[in-house]
Design goal:
573 residues; mainly alpha; 5-stranded mixed beta sheet; 23 helices; 7 strands; 66% helix; globular
């Protein structure tokens, strides 16, 4: 009987969430019952929120006797992670937004203005809108770029809390080292290397959401294995966070596979029994994505089939495979662990050395973890090693190699701080740890100064366009999406001019094509000179403004890219 209120509240939350998704998301319109149109979204959202509050309150009351004491060290590392990033997020948000990240920002603006309620970035059925939905209310009261960066920081703070718990779990059999190991792992994650800091602030690819949710899936999986009495509830929670992560980005398959393998290896029978609850949780977390896929031929899942979407060859020679493996170690892992680009030779070499030292220490930690992975006390190490192996294997065998950009290995940061904590035990270890953390923090701050300057440049550029009366423009994809986002769509740009002409929101091209006039924003001086020559041949007069990017405006008549480059094709995709 004591369980009945919680079951009723949970049922109300599940039903309310399902109805809310059907009512809210545009992709669910073909599946939406007509009667549901009459229910206000606000009413359904209130129902879900109230039911979730009731579930949490009842769970807190039932678990009061067994609740773990508040961990002040965990609160400390989370607070440090947030405070370290707040100045970067506030002063450099416009720079940390990438062109791809701005696509999610535009979804947030659509939600804020009530224009659209997308599940995924248009034409990218593996990049979900969760962060856009969370950003939209905040973007109603502060600058949208800053709102997006702050939401990224909150996701990263959740990741730091999960890493701290993984670090504590590996030291449960050694109480004397538990405090230092979890603090070491948490501090390294809080003051991360420059590449990780950059991704913790950007909106690129939804990686920070998957990092946070995937790491919490590991924490929940470990709790499932260690507490048989609570396995049904933990299975549901694991499925829920994995489902949310999968909605955010398809690369959530990495923590999903690692967790599934871990549960099967720990207890095959109990894992099979937990599967229905885990699948239910996944369906709830990824419900927006499942609704979209039901109406669109399950396109998202095609990306999981090797060779079905990507043109990358699935077969490679042994030499190529070995070469890629070496590149992952010598390039990606060194960058992930501390190396950064763009410095004078002496600093460049020092950063590369520190990245290599950190990599060596992680390997030492992995060797020690392998030794400690036997028996029941080695369960956390088995999970961490299994997860790291899955991430490395997927990056090596299934994902493209992008020189200098280890984004597909970013999720290794769930394991790296804990492995470093294992390698850096003892007094000398603490000294090395301080050096590594200081190097990461200083490199992150050094890149932040550049981001702050770039933020000012981008904002000034958008203001200058607005001051010049530019309301529509043809430009390149990497400029168009950021101008659209940073201007709040007061300046509408199409990527039709190129050189990269890809469009995601087709309405921007349609709007610029239909506008009575449109400026031309070139990617550089050489491109602007070329445009000038073409306009002169056409007998079109214009004015040129050399802003952050060269702008040709006030043309005597509208000239589109198809007239400037008649030999080119201009597909939307």
């Amino acid at each position: 009987m004591a369980e009945r209120p919680r079951i009723l509240a949970a049922t109300a939350a599940v039903v309310g969430w399902g109805l809310l998704c059907l009512r809210w998301f545009d992709a669910a319109a073909p599946l939406r019952p007509r009667a549901l149109e009459r229910l206000p979204v606000s009413l359904l959202a209130t129902l879900v929120a109230a039911a979730l509050v009731a579930v949490v309150a009842r769970g807190a009351a039932d678990g009061a006797a067994t609740r773990r004491p508040r961990d002040r060290a965990e609160l400390l590392v989370v607070a440090l992670a947030i405070l370290f990033r707040l100045p970067m997020a506030w002063q450099g948000a416009a720079a940390y937004v990438t062109a791809d990240g701005a696509l999610s920002g535009l979804m947030a603006l659509d939600v804020r203005e009530g224009r659209a309620h997308d599940v995924f970035v248009p034409h990218v059925p593996y990049s979900g809108s969760l962060k856009a939905l969370l950003t939209a209310p905040l973007a109603a009261v502060i600058d949208p770029a800053r709102a997006f960066a702050l939401v990224s920081v909150l996701f990263y703070a959740a990741f730091v809390a999960a890493v701290h718990r993984l670090g504590a779990a590996t030291a449960r059999d050694a109480p004397g080292t538990a405090s230092s190991r979890r603090l070491t792992a948490g501090l390294y994650a809080a003051f991360s290397p420059a590449f990780v800091t950059r991704y913790s602030l950007s909106n690129d690819g939804n990686y920070v959401e998957v990092l946070a949710l995937g790491t919490w899936a590991l924490v929940l999986a470990l709790g499932w294995a260690e507490d048989p009495a609570r396995r049904p509830r933990r299975a549901l929670a694991i499925g829920l966070v994995v489902g949310l992560a999968f909605w955010c980005h398809i690369l959530a398959v990495i923590p999903a596979v690692a967790v599934a393998l871990f549960l099967l290896l720990e207890s095959p029978r109990d894992a099979a029994a937990a599967a229905p609850r885990a699948f239910l949780g996944f369906a709830l977390g990824d419900l927006p994505g499942l609704l979209w896929n039901a109406a669109n031929g399950w396109e998202s899942f095609a990306y999981l089939i090797p060779g079905h979407v990507s043109s990358t060859s699935s077969s490679a020679s042994v030499t190529t495979a070995v070469g890629k493996a070496w590149s992952l170690v010598s390039d990606h892992l060194v960058v992930l662990l501390g190396y950064d680009f763009g410095y004078p030779v002496a600093v460049d070499r020092l950063l590369r050395l520190m990245g290599a030292v950190a990599l060596g220490l992680v390997m030492i930690g992995a060797v020690r973890a392998i030794r400690a992975a036997r028996g029941e006390g080695g369960r956390p190490w088995r999970l961490i090693l299994l997860f790291a192996s899955v991430n490395l294997g997927v990056a090596w065998l299934a994902l493209p190699y992008i020189p200098g950009n280890p984004r597909y290995l970013l999720f290794l940061m769930a394991a790296v701080p804990v492995l470093l904590a294992e390698a850096l035990k003892g007094r000398m270890g603490r000294v090395v740890l301080v050096v590594l953390i200081a190097t990461g923090a200083l490199a992150s701050l050094a890149q932040a100064t550049g981001a702050w300057a770039a933020d000012r440049q981008w904002r000034a550029f958008v203001r200058d366009l607005q001051a010049e009366g530019v309301r529509a423009c043809y430009t390149d994809f990497y400029l168009a999406t950021k101008i659209n986002f940073l201007s709040g769509e007061s300046v509408t740009c199409s990527a039709k001019l190129g050189p990269t002409t890809t469009e995601y929101f087709f309405r921007f091209r349609e709007a610029v094509d239909a506008a009575p006039d449109a400026a031309l924003v070139a990617v550089n001086q050489a491109a602007a000179d070329k445009l000038e020559r073409r306009l002169e041949r056409l007998g079109v007069t214009y004015e040129r403004r050399d802003l952050m990017k060269p702008v040709l405006l006030r043309l005597s008549r509208k000239v589109g890219p198809e007239e400037l480059f008649p030999d080119r094709a201009f597909p939307l995709r």
